[in-house]
Design brief:
The protein is of the alpha/beta class. It folds into two domains: 157 residues, 3-Layer(aba) Sandwich (Alpha/beta knot); 54 residues, tRNA(m1g37)methyltransferase, domain 2 (Trp Operon Repressor, Chain A), CATH 1.10.1270. The chain is built from seven helices and nine strands, in the order E-H-H-E-E-E-H-E-H-E-H-E-H-E-E-H. The strands form three sheets. The protein has a five-stranded parallel beta sheet, with helices on both faces. The protein has a two-stranded antiparallel sheet with strand order 3-4. Strands 8-9 form a two-stranded antiparallel ribbon. Strand 8 and strand 9 form a beta hairpin. Helix 3 runs parallel beside helix 5. It is elongated. Bound molecules: adenine. Adenine binds next to strand 5.
Length: 235
C-alpha cells in the first residue's frame, strides 16, 4: 500500500480527494492511505498560534517553524512505522520544480510521500532547510495555499497506482504520458447537431484507426503545444 501523509491547516479539504471518483475508489480498495497532520495540534500556546509576522517587515504572515517541523516529523515517523522504505518530503510552492507527467512518474517510484501545504505568505525558510527534500510547483501562478497543489499531485499519482483506474490501457494512451496530446474521442450518437463522427472510426479497420489517431495526436501537439515536440534538453 502506498502511504501519503499531508501536513496542512485544512485537513477537511482532502476529503474531496479521498471521498470522490477514481481517487476515492483507490482509497476504498486499500491501494493507498492518506493521513493529515494539522500543525495547530503541534502548538503549545493556549491560542494555538501557527503564524507570525515576517522579520524585516512586509505584508502577510509566515508559518512558524516549530509546529510545522513537529508535524512533519510525526508524518515521517508514520511513514517508517507503516513499512515505507523510500519516502520523500515535498513542499508545494510556486518556487518549486514545475510538475509534469515525467515528475509524476518519478515520484510514483517512492513507497510513500510526505506533502507540506503552506498558507499565508509562506513558511519559515528553516523548515525547508531542515525537513524538506524537494519543492514542487503546479504551474506559474499563485494560489492561496498548497492544499490544492498537494491534491493535484496526489490525484496524478493515485491514478497511476495499479488497480485504481480500471482499464490499464487508459493511463498509457492518454495525453502527456506519450509526450503528446491525446487524439479526439467520440461516442454515440453517430450524428450530433449535424456533426458526424469521423468515418474512419466507424470503419472497423483497426490499423487505419490507429494511424488516424496518431496523426491527430501529432497534428494537435504541433498546433497547440509545439514545445512538447522539441527534443529533450535540460529541464
Ligand atoms: N502554493 C501557492 N501557489 C502554488 C503553486 N502554483 N504551486 C504549488 N504550490 C503553490
Amino acid at each position: 500500500m502506498k502511504r501519503f501523509d499531508v501536513v496542512t491547516l485544512f485537513p477537511e479539504m482532502f476529503s474531496a480527494l479521498t471521498h470522490n471518483g477514481v481517487t476515492g475508489r483507490g482509497e476504498g480498495r486499500g491501494i493507498y492511505d492518506l493521513v493529515c497532520w494539522n500543525p495547530r495540534e503541534f502548538t503549545d500556546d493556549p491560542r494555538r498560534t501557527v503564524d507570525d509576522r515576517p522579520y524585516g517587515g512586509g505584508a502577510g504572515m509566515v508559518l512558524t517553524p516549530s509546529p510545522l517541523v513537529k508535524a512533519i516529523h510525526t508524518a515521517k515517523c508514520r511513514q517508517l512505522s507503516t513499512g515505507v522504505k523510500l519516502s520523500k518530503t515535498i513542499y508545494l510552492s510556486p518556487q518549486g520544480r514545475v510538475l509534469n507527467q515525467q515528475l509524476v512518474e518519478e515520484l510514483s517510484t517512492f513507497d510513500g510521500l510526505v506533502l507540506l501545504s503552506g498558507r499565508y505568505e509562506g513558511v519559515d525558510e528553516r523548515v525547508i532547510e531542515e525537513s524538506v527534500d524537494l519543492e514542487v510547483s503546479i504551474g506559474d501562478y499563485v494560489l492561496s495555499g498548497g492544499e490544492l497543489p498537494a491534491m493535484v499531485l496526489l490525484d496524478a499519482l493515485i491514478r497511476l497506482l495499479p488497480g485504481v483506474v480500471n482499464h490499464s490501457e487508459s493511463v498509457v494512451d492518454e495525453s502527456h504520458s506519450s509526450g503528446m496530446l491525446e487524439y479526439p474521442q467520440y461516442t454515440r450518437p453517430e450524428v450530433f447537431n449535424g456533426r458526424r463522427v469521423p468515418e474512419v472510426l466507424l470503419s472497423g479497420h483497426h490499423d487505419d484507426i490507429r494511424r488516424w489517431r496518431q496523426e491527430q495526436s501529432l497534428g494537435r501537439t504541433r498546433q497547440r503545444r509545439p514545445d512538447l515536440l522539441k527534443t529533450e534538453g535540460p529541464n
